[in-house]
Sequence to fold (249 residues):
Amino acid sequence: MPMRLQKFLARAGAASRRGSEALMTAGRVTVNGVVVTELGSKVDPSADVVAVDGKVVRLTDVPVTLMLNKPAGYVTTMSDPHARHTVAELVPTDRFPGLFPIGRLDQDTTGLLLFSTDGELGNRLLHPRHHVEKTYEALVEGVPREEALEALRCGIQLEDGMTAPARVGLVPSCAGDPKGSARLELAIHEGRKRQVRRMCEAVGHPVVALHREWFGPLTLDGLEPGAWRLLDAAELAALGEAAGLGASC
Fold:
């Protein structure tokens, strides 16, 4: 059955739905050798040959989704013109062509990063209307007083607008933490650039180290830094429910 080209690209794992639209408008997508830039154009997956930057993309029978425990020092991109280490080095792109990261973690931020070949799933998980929480543990300078915690809970005015309320609380320190520091557990459902770092800095407690332990219903659960694993059926169902897809993903 014919489908919209941007939906085909998303399901094939070329990019999220929004990212697929950007690929089209940039003239990077061809159908049967002809550049297609008009959003809403349709293709027949069983007959048409779709390519991005000259590379043919196809629908896979079963989408793949996995989690990575991202170590520090890697940028969240599948290629980098500055030759920095990327998360693509840590996941099996040869085994699962079309993998892309769902959202991003800063170069120095560690923890749970999801990858998928299912562009529709990725798009929904990142869309604000689904309010999928991401939970971080932040080592910060100083020990926040209740006023600072309450400000984070109510929302912080940043240069790009007011943040949504966050769930915030102090958690026990770890051996080796710098003197005069504290650890916060902070859950947000937005995805602004460096948001947790900017929020903490705004209340006078800059982040020393940042780690994401949860993405929606999923947790690293002992996965070693730098390691990845495929999601199991129960995790996929829970993630699909969080994304508003039911058990279909």
Remarks:
- Residues 233-242 form the longest helix (10 residues).
- The CA atoms of residues 121 and 245 lie 8 Å apart.
- The longest strand covers residues 207-215.
